[in-house]
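Project standup — Tuesday

K.O.: blocked on the structure for the chain from last sprint. Re-posting the sequence here as requested.
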Amino acid sequence: MKNVNQTVINKANTVFEKKDDKYFGYKSRFGDIVIGGAYSYRFVVHYAKTNQDVVIIPGDVNTVTTPVCTTLEERLWKPEKTAQARRDEIVEQAKADVEKLSNYGAGVRYETDVFTKATCNVEFVANRDKRTVVALVKGVRTGNVYAKGIAKAAPSDCFNVHIGKAIALRRALGLAVPDEYLNAPQPTETYLTTAEAYPNRIINDSREEVGE
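H.V.: unblocked you, prediction finished:
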């Protein structure tokens, strides 16, 4: 453990060391952790929330996670976000992504061939019933559709027009689609009249009127 803050480790009641995707018991004053035993992230998070003075040595052995739990109130991790909170974050991320990629006000410079770039606008066509969003990259001068991307919600997924727009636009522009867009947690809250449910399952939480 060269260059590790040894003082912090010495004062801790329990120490885990992260290697790849596992956390190994490194020290336990209470004897409730097997030294050298492998533990999951979920276990370590729960342990850190319910015990004092827990330290994690991450993959980079030159650092130690902070803050260290020193009182009942000070925990290594804040409470994990709910699925709904994480989904809300992803929706906001998608909105910002669309605005940035669309470059509203200046248009999108789309490479139509090796030597030519066209200034384009982005047009979205969303269909609530089909649970799809289509992104059309259209030339400002010509009106030609130079690229098209499609996003479709799986039957088991809740449709969200903002996430759909981000996926469709990225596909139209030939960009990678972040995994969080494709695997966003399903909503757990009904927003009164702004969400559609069928039966006991939210099928649309776009929170805006979706054009046909």
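K.O.: great, moving the ticket to review. The mean pLDDT is 78. The helical segments are 6-11, 41-50, 83-102, 161-172, 179-182.
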